[in-house]
Automatic annotation (TrEMBL):
It is a multi-pass membrane protein. The chain crosses the membrane at residues 40-66, 73-91, 157-181, 193-211. It comes from Nocardioides vastitatis. Pfam families: LysE. It comes from the Bacteria. Keywords: Cell membrane, Membrane, Transmembrane, Transmembrane helix. The lineage of its organism: Bacteria, Bacillati, Actinomycetota, Actinomycetes, Propionibacteriales. The keyword Zinc does not apply. It is found in: Cell membrane. This is LysE family translocator.
């Protein structure tokens, strides 16, 4: 076990719980589709983190972090994607909230799920894959918790797994909370308001990502 596992978990918890694009996206999808949709969005976010963790292990993340052009390209594509999701949320809010089925899942006018599991997972995945700063977390944060004398690769793998495990626990808890919240937000007016607020937040986060420095 890494000697600095507990301090790392404290920092990882702070990063995980800090509001950002992932939280806004999971909240928005959860309000639209319920617990399962929020959970699958969170799984997509964790998968994106896992991809960067694997990339850092083989050195690809270091190449990305060192290349200003690659970093900037992914940053702008990611910003555009967040803005797109925000705009779509605002467009969706103008159409009014759709009905729900007997299990609390939001349905379209044709009684089909508005946001399926695959789409929710893909949105969470792309939100993280198009965020190059996640690569920097693995390159700059984790090495600080590798003590002298420890095998770097093994320790990094354990810390990355702990980071992912915490993410999975958080998104499961958050998705359940969103489901409870959704039951108190059954009115069309409240759902529309949440859709608009999260849409504006996603657009704002996209702009912030675009103007942020390397």
């Amino acid at each position: 076990m890494p000697h600095q596992l507990l301090p790392f978990l404290a920092v990882a918890a702070l990063l995980t719980l800090t509001p950002g694009p992932d939280m806004a996206l999971v909240l928005r999808n959860g309000i639209r589709g319920g617990v399962r949709t929020a959970w699958w969005t969170g799984l997509g976010c964790c998968t994106g983190i896992a991809v960067y963790a694997a990339a850092s292990a083989v050195g690809l993340a270091a190449v990305l972090a060192a290349s200003t052009t690659a970093f900037t390209l992914i940053k702008f594509v990611g910003a555009a994607y967040l803005i797109y999701l925000g705009v779509m949320a605002l467009v969706h809010s103008r159409k009014g909230a759709p009905p729900t089925d007997g299990h609390g899942a939001v349905l379209s006018r044709a009684h089909e799920p508005v946001l399926g599991r695959a789409q929710a997972f893909r949105q969470g995945l792309m939100s993280n894959l198009l965020n190059p700063k996640i690569a920097l977390i693995f390159l700059t944060l984790i090495p600080q918790f590798v003590s002298p004398g420890e095998e770097p690769f093994a320790t990094t793998a354990v810390l990355a797994a702990a980071f992912l495990g915490m993410g999975l626990l958080w998104w499961r808890t958050f998705s359940l909370a969103v489901g409870v919240l959704g039951r108190f937000m059954a009115s069309e007016r409240v759902r529309t308001t949440v859709e608009r607020v999260t849409g504006i937040v996603l657009i704002g986060l996209g702009v912030r990502v675009a103007v942020a420095d390397h």
